[in-house]
Amino acid sequence: MIQPTKWQRSFRYAYEGVKYALATQRNMKFHFFAALVVLVLAFFFNLSKFDVLFILLAVTLMIVTELINTAVEKAVDLAMPDIHPLAKIAKDTAAASVLVSAAFAAVTGMIIFYEPVDNLFRIARSSEGQSFTAGTVWVLLTLIILTVIVVETRFASKGNRAKPSLLTAVAFAVATLLTCQVQETLPSLLGFFLAGVLLVVLYDRRTRTLASLWLGALLGSFITVLAYYLYHINL
């Protein structure tokens, strides 16, 4: 049998480390999913080479710091199983590096994607149409709530954990509705930002799985866009 060379073993060990972090660390799963979404958006908006380099830098920095944070936590747990002030400082400092890289990634994403998203919203709003009335808005939100409840009830007996989240469905429906109603892009982005903050908070509290939260968000946005489209067709 041919023995693997040194660099092959190093690559395998590194790959095992990535798989371990992705399988056991909730934050790593979130970062990988966010990175996937960002890269898909970069492809969709056909970003320039310069913008793509910044996106890759932010994604790489985010994943690397999370890997280092995981390594520090496991090393500290091995060396100091009991609670110790210095162990806490080591873990908090490693977690701070993740926070800094996450802030850098968020700011980078907002700067790079603002202009293409603004152009996309302006194109979507270019066609003149009547806005939703107050009654129509409440009917739409009620329809979304009932849809989520029906979907949750439909799959409850099967033990499916990827059931849509009602809160994220409503939050992203409101953000999508703002995008359809207002003429400025900034309020729309702020609406999606607040909806995203709610998603992160719910995920951090472990009340729902990541798939459940994103399924609710997609369901709320999809129903809102479909209702808006059908509403203007029937005018």
TrEMBL record:
Listed InterPro entries: DAGK (IPR000829), UDPK (IPR033717)
Assigned keywords, A-Z: Membrane, Transmembrane, Transmembrane helix
Taxonomic lineage from the root: Bacteria, Bacillati, Bacillota, Bacilli, Bacillales
Transmembrane segments: 30-47, 53-72, 93-114, 134-151, 163-179, 185-203, 210-231
Residue runs in coiled coils: none
Signal peptide: none
Name listed for the protein in its UniProt record: Diacylglycerol kinase family protein
Pfam families from the UniProt entry: DAGK_prokar
Annotated CDD domains: UDPK_IM_like
